[in-house]
Amino acid sequence: MSQVLKEFSDQNLHRVFPLTDESGSLDLTGSFTLPTSLITDIYLCIPHLPYIDPEKFYVSNVTIRRMFIDVYIGYDDPQTPLPLGVFKNIETSAALHSKYEFVPFESQTQDAYAPLFHMSGQVTIGDPAESVKSLGSWNFSPIDNEHATRISPVRVGRGLLNVQYISVNNRLFTGNVKLQEGENVSLDVSSHTVDGVLETVITVNASLTAGSSLQLGSDEDILTELVERFGVPIRTINGLLPDADRNFSIIGEDCTTIEQNDNGVVISNPCATPCCDQDPNISNLLESISNMNLRYAQLESYYRAASANIVSLQNKLLVLGSEV
Predict the structure, then answer these.
(1) What is the chain's alpha carbon radius of gyration, rounded to the nearest angstrom?
(2) pTM (2 decimals)?
(3) Element counts in the chain: helices (H) and strands (E)
(4) Are residues 75 and 84 in contact, defined by beta-carbon separation less than 8 angstroms?
(5) For 106-148, how does the pLDDT look when each residue is reduced to its tens digit (9 = 90+)?
(6) How many CA atoms lie within 13 A of 87 on its CB side?
(7) CA–CA distance, 63 with 224 (Å, rounded to integer)
(8) Which of 27, 213, 254, 271 is found 20 to 30 A from 122 (Cα to Cα)?
């Protein structure tokens, strides 16, 4: 079987196929004709849509450099003026009948033709030696047979057979791309038929903890789970909302200071602290007050004794006055 395929490719080194027989393959400047030995086979897998015509695919440009060749694929429709993608970096020293994969460009349209930029394909390169003789960038157009490079519709199949690329943050990833579950994330795969086509759905589920059955599909789900696990959080203080970082700031004013300890906040007033009790002037003042209190006590004692003597003398005088 492999020998038959090799002979098939060898025969294509000397005929127009896989382009249509009517394709003249002359570039728009009339300076270069695409050698039949460059492309010995090609296969395009296009979207399975009724308005996509397999007869409108063609080679829109061939860029030939000393080391590499790029083959661009276009679609003959005003809605898709730019190439759909490219067979890129074909080595000019590659072995006979080497194969290269199609690299689609990012979608250039937002209409019904956007699926064209999701197609895949493979090209078999014959002998690029003849092409290397004409370095440059050569454009073709299906406007007439002379400049046309239409791809034979028998080499264009309907139905995307595999994933062409994955877009993440506006970057396209092709080749072997692995989807891997991260922490507290699970990937669930299911398949069902839509309009007679088998469709595979990969659902990404996230949870607060590994193995949780809760799917965090909305802000309400997250808040409900947090409250259930950790209680109702503080949302305002005296009706005041936190700052943009969800923080509340406690600020001391006048003589009030705010300090942190291991598990809380210490609010103190250093102005009310007896910070000057070691001053000698205070000690002298306190001693003077103590002496004054002592003298006051002595004066009060003298006063009480004198008052008692006066009362006794008054009583004696009253007795003498009554005897006269």
Answers:
(1) 49
(2) 0.51
(3) 4, 15
(4) yes
(5) 776 677 888 888 888 999 998 888 889 999 999 999 989 999 9
(6) 26
(7) 59
(8) 27
